Amino acid sequence: MNPTSPSALQTITHILTHCRTVAVVGMSPKPERDSYRVAHYMQVHGWRIIPVNPVVAGQTLLGEKVFATLSQAVQHVQIDLVDVFRNSADAAPVVAEALALKLPAVWLQLGVCNDTALASAQAAGMWAVQDRCLKIEHARHIHP
To answer: 70: closest CA among 54, 56, 87?
Structure first.
């Protein structure tokens, strides 16, 4: 993280305070998967979850319409945060699409180790964080 970028703690606090509509990219429809559990937790605690390009396409997940792409989703709803549940090969294009759409924040989940994608998001002024341990369930201790 460059010296002018906010710290991970500042980013998480900002996301928890200001981001209420979340595009979840790569969510699994299986309740035992982390992506589903985190999305469910967020929904129960007041976030609106917009599934985008889920692991199994064509299903309704958590009561919302499933979109194939972020650009398709933003035509229908204002998105505050992109939560990426994809492996590192998929993270860079998702972050690039989020940047092109001028979305304000991205949370790279599940140990997505794509430093280039994270750095490009931060350099563009996006609130961006990645860390395997910074799932929403744990972040609630920072900002209940």
So the answer is: 54
